[in-house]
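Long-time lurker, first post. I've been practising inverse folding by hand and with some scripts of my own, and I keep getting stuck on stretches where the structure tokens seem ambiguous. Below is the full token string for one chain I'm working on. Before anyone asks, I'm not after the true native sequence, just a reasonable design that respects the backbone. If someone could post their per-position residues I'd love to compare against what I wrote down in my notebook.
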């Protein structure tokens, strides 16, 4: 996961520029609900940006229900009136960047539900992904290396195991911003990272045992430092 690409402020400005151009394209081409957008390759050439940047902008508009991607078919305009759609895109472009405290509060509320669903719906494949992230986190901590990314990759694996695509997508959207700000606000220190190893293991065990109540309880314990941060700021 390349967090530098995802969290760079220039990239955010570029993404807004792409969304604005997509809005202009939809209006210029008189595209209606159900109409197909040009391919990512064509859009990247037309806007002179990378395909990954096009993909990120499309994913953001998908999250807000403006576009819909269909495997092997392409990306289509959602069933929204043109006036309403234009207004929604304008609102998206005007969205303020959330402050770190808001992101943390949102993450806590979201993950307490996610971990309960993951305990009920996880597969063996999901457990393997969590285990890999957990072990990567443990290795980084014991080597006295920054393990913030590995920590969050463990939580993303849990989100995927919830089998709720909306929650999973929302986690993917807020995670890069959280990664950027963890060190800035000194939320975690080396001692807390070591405590996190045991907390992660407890969460993993509860999910493995398909115990949603215990999984939620262990996630709340894991978030105790973040709770403290929110209450003090």
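-- Answer (accepted) --
I ran through it position by position. Result:
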């Amino acid at each position: 996961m390349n967090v530098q690409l995802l969290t760079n402020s220039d990239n955010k400005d570029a993404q807004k520029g792409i969304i604005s151009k997509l809005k202009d394209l939809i209006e210029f081409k008189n595209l209606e609900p159900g109409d197909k957008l040009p391919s990512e390759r064509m859009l990247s050439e037309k806007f002179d940006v990378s395909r990954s940047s096009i993909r990120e902008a499309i994913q953001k508009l998908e999250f807000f229900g403006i576009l819909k991607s269909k495997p092997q078919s392409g990306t289509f305009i959602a069933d929204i009136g043109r006036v309403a759609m234009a207004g929604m895109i304008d609102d998206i472009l005007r969205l303020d960047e959330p402050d770190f405290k808001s992101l943390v509060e949102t993450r806590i509320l979201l993950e307490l539900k996610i971990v309960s669903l993951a305990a009920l719906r996880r597969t063996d494949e999901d457990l393997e992904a969590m285990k890999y992230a957990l072990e990567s986190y443990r290795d980084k901590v014991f080597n006295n290396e920054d393990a913030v990314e590995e920590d969050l990759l463990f939580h993303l694996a849990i989100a995927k195991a919830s089998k709720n695509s909306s929650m999973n997508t929302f986690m993917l959207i807020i995670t890069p911003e959280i990664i950027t700000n963890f060190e800035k606000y000194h939320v975690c220190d080396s001692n807390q990272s070591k405590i996190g190893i045991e907390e992660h293991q407890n969460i993993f065990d509860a999910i493995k045992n398909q115990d949603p109540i215990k999984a939620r309880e262990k996630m709340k314990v894991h978030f105790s430092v973040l709770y403290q941060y929110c209450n003090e700021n």
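A couple of notes from the structure itself: The radius of gyration is 20 Å. Residues 1-8 have pLDDT under 50 and may be disordered. Happy to go over any region you disagree with.
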